[in-house]
Design goal:
single chain, binds NADPH dihydro-nicotinamide-adenine-dinucleotide phosphate, 5-stranded parallel beta sheet, 7-stranded mixed beta sheet, FAD/NAD(P)-binding domain, about 600 residues, alpha/beta
Length: about 600
Amino acid sequence: MERPDLRAKYRAERDKRLRPDGNDQYMEPTGRFASLLDDPYTEPFEREPIDEELSVVLIGAGFAGLIHAARLVQAGITDLRLVDKAGDVGGVWYWNRYPGAQCDTAAMIYLPLLEETGTVPSRKYVRAPEIFAHAKRIAETFGLYEGALLSTGITDVRWDAASSRWIVRTDRDDTLRARFVITGTGPLSRPKLPAVEGLDTFAGPAFHTSRWDYSVTGGNPDGTPMTALAGKRVGIIGTGATAVQAIPHLAESAGELFVFQRTPSSVDARGNHDIDPDWFDTLEPGWQSEWQMNFATLQTGGFTDEDLVKDGWTDISNRIRDAVVAAVGAGAELTPETIATAFGEADDLKMDEIRARIEAIVEDPATAEALKPWYRQLCKRPCFSDEYLEAYNLPGTHLIDTDGKGVHRVDAEGVWVGDRHYPLDVLVIASGFEFGTDVGRRSGYEITGPAGTTLSEHWSDGMRTLHGMQTHGFPNLFVAGLTQAANLISNVPHNYVESANTVAAIVAHAREVGATEVEATAEAEEKWLSLLMNGSALFGNPDCTPGYYNNEGRPIDDSARRAMAGYPGGAVAYFTHIDAWRRKGTFEGVDFR
Ligand code: NDP
């Protein structure tokens, strides 16, 4: 059923938030915030520079790097090194230690390589320390620590035509002559700050959530209460997925908590529970892959006998699928319009429920009203929590709704919203991570290919790949990611597992045939791009309220679309396609020489 009033409300809420500066409303951490890019968790240490030839350098030791390294080791390629700025493996789970951090996707499918490492998660959704421990277990299981260069930043990656190798240099004067380079630096790794007037003038402690300062708050990532916040006035800017997890803990610890909200998140039920470790014994070997595929199938609107994970993510997609089926059952033709209408109707009902849930939980009617999200659910990252809305019932928690405008000024004493000033002792900045900015800026180094062009330059009009992982003009380089591939945002590590299978197969094949250079052909890359650009995309809908899912509300030009594009048929179609491509063994579109 068409709901013009709701559409008008959504558009009005979007329009309030549209702004001409898009990504430029954010700034890089500089000045007092420059230390944000440092590692506060590991003591600095000295080591001798390394100068060597090796098969593979993996940039980034988060799940992307770890999974790719594990699959390479399984394929018999062991002279490899993980390199990471962080003092340990784990990536986002190394950096993000904010209170309440946990996976938003069920641990049974989120934690990669569970069977290979003989691990079982303790709960349906596990806390960050358990995820970090799992990352370390992967490194231990596959012997990845031996070669790992941790607390080491890449400074330059440059092709050497004479040796057909990448020369990788680091801030520890290492020179690594790698046959292959795999970048696994994740889609959201570089913290960004709102470029609001006076942010750096705040006199009290201020930190970004990805570098939580427990020396200020007390407590620790294991959940020990943050006693140093007792009696303090704490402010938090932002209400995205990170803030939704951190706010309940801040609300419990702070004297008073001021939540500065620009756009409310949609927050559905979490339904977390312990898992009996013996239960895993009832599962057949290969269960994790089956569960991951079951989830991915449902996420892409497919059918399975059973919804194994059964959570908020599959609830969304199952409803959309069932609405399409019902429409077709009622005589509609299966066209993009039918799908769009059914999708819209299912989404409207879901968001009605999300808004009703707020009314049922939040006692103060004005606060409840201000917490209601007025947009389609997949316009922004869906959140799940059984503690977030409840936190607003604590007497010390104050929602400061900025009516879509956001915090615009900070001074030494606190935060301004309109003409009202909120004095604060501590300021927490939950403003997220760079997305869609230049690849060189995000990673902090450039990759220079055989033609002397950097990857940033090569992609200045948008990302170009074959299968989301290889780029013509950049031989022996693999990008481990989601974009232009499966784009399964609801279970990021699953993308890496499938990508790692492909990369390991290509590298092993290169060895077999004695190839020193492996490169996507220009034709194959072009064909892949046009397939992607002609396919429909759920993301980047211009009617959505702004955020990193839709280029911050700026026009979705070809470059922005390429940064968000996924395989037209969805994740499972991509996995099936790439599996068949790999198994065929001819690696069409890739030149081995
Ligand atoms: P987000 O980019 O999602 O959120 C940033 C928040 O800051 C938004 O609420 C934004 O408002 C707000 N904001 C920005 N500028 C201002 C301003 N001037 N005044 C007030 N508010 C402002 O970052 P997160 O760190 O929350 O999450 C990033 C991503 O990381 C998630 O989308 C998710 O993919 C991932 N993540 C995953 C988790 C998991 O799996 N467990 C947990 C946490 C994060 P607005 O919405 O209006 O732009």
